[in-house]
Specification:
By secondary structure, the protein is α/β, with parallel strands linked by helices. Helix content is 38%, strand content 21%. It has a nine-stranded mixed β-sheet, with helices on both faces. Strands 17-16-15-18-19-20 form a six-stranded parallel β-sheet, sandwiched between helices. A three-stranded antiparallel β-sheet has the order 10-12-11. Helix 1 crosses helix 19, helix 11 crosses helix 14 and helix 12 crosses helix 17. Bound molecules: adenosine-5'-diphosphate.
């Protein structure tokens, strides 16, 4: 049985800031279902600690070195009811018992380098303690980017890890874990690795570069994004390094967890509905309007929704430019999001300016996210870039028509609706331009008035299938490719 240790800095249901948590919470389960011994390790954040789970202390006082210091940490574990996937949580109060995962709206925590060097080293300490030496360590984003580097250098001659291959998944290349030279000294890596061929990046240490350079296989979360990040526009400086790994660089689309995101079974929404029976959807719209204290008059006009981290990546500058024009039209707009202070303020202002037509909630609220998916008619994602994007995939399942910019995973998952052929699942625009966004919204609004065609579009959307099963199989193929490089058959 293939043994995979999945390393992630966040995972549902323990702690989440974005899509990575959805992926990390679901992919290991999907792998398990196809016969892989997949286990997940993540930090024991306060958010995880506060969940009412029956965590057990598995190992105490494991020691790792941070620079010249020896630092101790514990491991918690949690068995699911079905004895399903095994979870390991790295416990260290001074690092992880904080209000947020990576920082506050004002900026990142000052010691993020130490927090995630420690986490990476604890992954090895955990394997040693459990005598569990996986075939694959599957790392995700910069927080675990050093692990492939440790495997290929510090542990290269350790027979216990000789057959362990690594894969590094990039969920967002813009967040790179770039730290000053002092952070390198904490890693314990050989000094020669602070070089262009190693982990150095313009005088700093880049955890993401470490993952890209040293992993056996690298992937991103959509085919289009895997090509985009090799260009200057999307590579955030790492495009050259990514191009050197071109032969080992793949794109695997994320799946959706349809146990969590399915209007037929969703416990958070006012009324269930399905492809066969859509009568519950207007009730969800009514309930959503109520949640935002909006008038029921909006029931008869299209309701546009947004759920997002409020970050530059997500295209809110475009939305801001057209907001006044949008508000002259017959529609409603709801937004749930939190993030950069400038966007928190901007949307609060918009809410104040148009109280009758907009509902704005600056917060993180999973229940409301479900209500928005179910209650809206259209879902906006005008992202500047989008590695995969999950909300548009959830929107499809809820028959809430995505209006997206054709970039990354948005381009790969949404097919432009063609009114003549009746094919397609949403609306797309290519050029990053506010007028193009407005034009595309207008196109959707026009089609909305053609009830027959709109219903066909809803049905196409709800019929699209992005379940994890297909992607999990693709990951197994990548694991095999990585193992082949080490001559490990992985059986
Ligand atoms: P990203 O990972 O870039 O944030 P994704 O679309 O891949 O974007 O994933 C976003 C995930 O986070 C979705 O599950 C979405 O529902 C959730 N999410 C984002 N912001 C909020 C919020 N303010 N409240 C609730 N859920 C949110």
């Amino acid at each position: 049985m293939l043994k995979v240790l999945f390393v992630s800095s966040e995972a549902v249901p323990f702690a989440k800031t974005g899509g990575l948590a959805d992926v990390s919470g679901t992919l290991p389960r999907a792998l398990k279902e196809i016969g892989v011994d997949a286990r997940l390790v993540l930090p024991f954040y306060r958010m995880a600690r506060e969940q009412k789970f029956n965590y057990k202390l598995l190992a105490e006082d494991l020691e790792v070195t941070l620079g010249k210091q020896t630092v101790k940490g514990d491991i918690r574990t949690l068995l699911t009811e079905e004895n399903d996937c095994l979870f390991y949580l790295v416990e260290k109060e001074e690092f992880y018992d904080r209000s947020n995962l990576y920082g506050t709206p004002k900026g990142d925590y000052f010691d993020n380098a130490a927090r995630f060097i420690f986490f990476s080293k604890m992954v090895f300490a955990l394997c040693e303690k459990l005598n569990f030496f996986p075939d694959i360590i599957h790392c995700n984003d910069w927080q675990s980017g050093l692990i492939p580097c440790y495997l290929k250098t510090v542990y290269r001659k350790d027979p216990r890890f000789a057959k362990t291959a690594s894969i590094f998944s990039i969920h967002n290349v813009a967040y790179q874990g770039l730290f000053s030279r002092e952070a390198f000294d904490l890693t314990g890596l050989p000094p020669e690795l602070f070089s262009i061929a190693g982990v150095e990046f313009w005088g700093k240490i880049s955890f993401m570069k470490a993952g890209i350079v040293f992993a056996d296989i690298v992937n991103t979360v959509s085919e289009t994004y895997s090509r985009e990040i090799q260009t200057e526009e999307f590579g955030y400086g790492l495009e050259g390094i990514l191009r050197t790994r071109k032969k080992d660089l793949y794109g695997v689309l994320n799946g959706a967890d349809y146990e969590e995101w399915n209007p037929a079974t969703d416990a958070f929404i006012a009324s269930p509905y399905s492809l066969e029976d859509l009568t519950g959807k207007p009730k969800c719209k009514q309930d959503l309007l109520k949640a935002f204290s909006l008038s029921e008059e909006l029931l008869s006009v299209p309701l546009l929704g947004v759920i997002s981290r409020l970050a530059d990546q997500k295209g809110f500058d475009l939305l801001a430019q057209i907001m006044d024009k949008l508000m002259t039209m017959d529609l409603g707009f709801v937004l749930l999001g939190t993030g950069d202070e400038k966007y928190n303020e901007l949307f609060t202002l918009i809410g104040g300016k148009y109280p009758k037509k907009t509902g704005i909630k600056i917060a993180y609220d999973n229940t409301l996210a479900h209500k928005i998916e179910a209650g809206c008619d259209m879902f906006l994602m005008p992202s500047r870039y989008e590695p995969c994007g999950l909300n548009q995939i959830y929107s499809l399942k809820y028959g809430t028509i995505p209006i997206v910019r054709a970039t990354g995973g948005l381009d790969d998952t949404i097919q432009e609706f063609n009114p003549s052929s009746g094919k397609g699942t949403g609306f797309k625009f290519k050029q990053y331009d506010a007028n193009k966004l407005l034009k595309t919204i207008k196109k959707a609004l026009t089609l909305y008035n053609d009830k027959g065609k709109w219903e066909k579009l809803i049905k196409n959307a709800m019929d699209a299938d992005f379940s994890w099963k297909i992607s999990a199989k693709k990951y197994v193929e990548l694991y095999r490719k990585a193992l082949a490089k080490l001559g490990n058959p992985g059986d």
